[in-house]
């Protein structure tokens, strides 16, 4: 049992390190793919000074902290998003490994009678880990590219769709209907929503990238997985929309309080000016505040500027409500969530309905 424990921990550590390396490569994909640049050449360089990054400065996460988040050549700050993506991929790969292999190491009693069964079980789990790892490998750059650029590259979506069919049929030995029904269900459902929205609102509601993405998720996860992803993704998207609106509301309230505070200071300066309770050192500042008060009350130009600020605020709120919110990150989040907890939650729901 001690050997089994040590082997499991060693493999877990290896998978985590492997995830860091994959995350480093995905940073390149996220940065270069939307700009149409090669993913292999040239070598990684500083975004500001374009200096080629040495191999010892390109160690995932470690180099970032050793350099204190700055470029060795120009000293400019490096975005925290790079080590964050590396860490995210490493954690997801590690958790996936634990989910798939933990029972094989700690709950499966190997005997001469079930050795062949254990071998088949381990082989299937390994193929499952490869399939789901590739699934995550594609979804992460899709999420961040869609978040930063509001696009989902067709190359990633097509790769996701093709891989969904190939992995399920040739690696996991599932029927052709498993990926096909998931592909059709997800893609057709989103396509009908896009057409209906376009007819009602006369503008695009769902982009073609989202339709292809949900079709690719369906090809990987089948009909149960794609239905779960649609509902969970919609919930995550709605939650993100509400949090975004709340964030803007808090920002607006902060600005209003700040403006009121500044106005009260001007009024106080005006009172001090009229009462003569001011020193020689600040007389000029109070006089200026007094004049600004008079001008703001009498000059229609100032009032028009205030009105324009209010109109711009309302326009900003309207733009937020009607803006094109990237749906790809929420769909990807829901699909990955399904890998870990989807089947468990679906079973709970089915048992609840049967009662």
In short:
The chain has ten helices and no strands. It is mostly helical and 355 residues long. The longest helix is centred in the last third of the chain and has 68 residues.
Mean pLDDT: 83
Strand elements, count: 0
Categorize the overall geometry: globular
Helix content: over 70%
Helix count from the secondary structure assignment: 10
Order of helices and strands: HHHHHHHHHH
Could you tell me the radius of gyration in angstroms? 28 Å
Features of the shown structure:
355 residues, mainly alpha
Descriptive notes:
The protein is mostly helical and 355 residues long. It has a domain of 106 residues. Helices cover 77% and strands 0% of the residues. It contains ten helices and no strands. Helix 7 crosses helix 10. It starts with a helix and ends with a helix. About 8% of the residues have low confidence.
Topology:
Layout: H1 2-32, H2 62-66, H3 81-106, H4 115-149, H5 154-171, H6 177-201, H7 208-275, H8 283-298, H9 300-322, H10 328-354
Helix pairs in contact: 1-3, 1-4, 3-4, 4-5, 4-10, 5-6, 5-7, 6-7, 7-8, 7-10, 8-9
């Amino acid at each position: 049992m001690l050997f089994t424990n040590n082997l499991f921990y060693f493999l877990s550590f290896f998978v985590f390190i492997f995830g860091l390396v994959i995350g480093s490569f995905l940073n390149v994909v996220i940065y270069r793919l939307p700009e149409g640049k090669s993913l292999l050449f040239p070598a990684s360089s500083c975004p500001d000074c374009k200096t080629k990054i040495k191999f010892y400065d390109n160690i995932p996460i470690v180099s970032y902290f050793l350099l204190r988040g700055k470029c060795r050549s120009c000293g400019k700050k490096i975005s925290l998003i790079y080590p964050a993506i590396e860490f995210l991929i490493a954690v997801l790969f590690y958790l996936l490994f634990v989910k798939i292999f933990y029972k094989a190491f700690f709950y499966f009693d190997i005997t001469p009678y079930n050795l062949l069964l254990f071998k088949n079980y381990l082989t299937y789990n390994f193929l499952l880990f490869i399939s789901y790892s590739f699934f995550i490998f594609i979804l992460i750059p899709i999420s961040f590219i869609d978040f930063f650029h509001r696009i989902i590259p067709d190359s990633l979506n097509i790769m996701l769709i093709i891989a969904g069919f190939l992995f399920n049929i040739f690696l996991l030995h599932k029927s052709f209907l498993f990926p096909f029904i998931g592909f059709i269900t997800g893609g057709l459902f989103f396509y009908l929503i896009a057409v209906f929205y376009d007819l009602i609102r006369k503008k695009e509601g769902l982009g073609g990238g989202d339709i292809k993405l949900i079709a690719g998720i369906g090809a990987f996860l089948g009909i149960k997985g794609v239905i779960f992803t649609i509902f969970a993704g919609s919930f995550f998207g709605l939650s993100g929309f509400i949090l975004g609106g709340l964030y803007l509301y808090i920002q607006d309230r902060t600005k209003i309080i700040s403006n009121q505070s500044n106005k009260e200071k001007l009024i106080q300066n005006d009172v001090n000016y009229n009462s003569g309770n001011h020193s020689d050192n600040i007389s000029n500042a109070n006089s200026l505040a007094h004049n600004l008060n008079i001008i703001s009350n009498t000059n229609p130009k100032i009032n028009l500027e205030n009105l324009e600020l209010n109109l711009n605020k309302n326009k900003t709120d309207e733009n937020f409500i009607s803006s094109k919110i990237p749906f790809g990150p929420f769909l990807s989040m829901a699909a990955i969530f399904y890998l870990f907890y989807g089947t468990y939650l679906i079973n709970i729901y089915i048992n609840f309905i049967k009662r």
